[in-house]
Amino acid sequence: MHLKTEDLIRLEIDFDSGVIPPPYSHMFKLKIGFGKNFLDTTLDLIYTDREELTEEEIFDEGFTTDDNFHFHGEIPKVWETPLKSLYAKSKWSNNKSNEDGGIRILAKDSHGKISRTVPLNQQEWQLFAQDYIQAIYESSKKERPLQLQYLIRENDKEIAIQLQVKFLLRNVEVSVNGEIKEGDWDNTKELLSYVFLPDYDYGKAQEQQPKKSGHFIECGDGFWHEMGKGVINIDDSFDAVTKIKNGFQKLI
Q1: How far apart are CA 38 and CA 32, in angstroms?
Q2: What domain of life does the native source organism fall in (predicted)?
Q3: Which of 72, 91, 131, 205 could join 223 via S-S bond, C-beta 3.0 to 4.6 A?
């Protein structure tokens, strides 16, 4: 049953990673209440099935023994419209649960009606939930806003682009050679989807800003990578490196 979007007062997003092995396997529940001035939000994130792993095996994969996370607080109302829009356009499975993992939705409206459904557009819901959790991390100071730098040095010219992505506010700030302007959220999200696709060769990276000609990217960790040499496409059928170059050039 699909409730009327304008009557919604609460959404719960349940996720289970399914057959993914530990230490990556996890589940989370997002409870989001639509208040007057903010979204009343609770997140419980739990990593599962780790009892079969040693601490060393967990550390080797970049995790710790205390990765579970709980949050309760206020998320800005700017997230309400995109969430309700996603709910409104979604199509639903006849199943009440998803045995293979994925997203389940519980919706409650102002008339007391409750709907438990599985969305068919699983990827959209999972990507939205990831972004929303990133907003929670910023709100709780667990993580800072994402910052990227991109440097173009060619034809005796230098263009320095800085990109700051604030998930909490769904806001993008673009600086081109020190001139600051507001970026487009959806276009930036598309660019980010390309940025994290290639392979980054840290053996060829450098900590100082490059002085030679070329295109270079720094993904917030202090290491500069040269596009096409230190940033390499993993899939020959998809040229993510060119997508990244074109995306940053459009910001100029």
Answers
A1: 10
A2: Bacteria
A3: 205
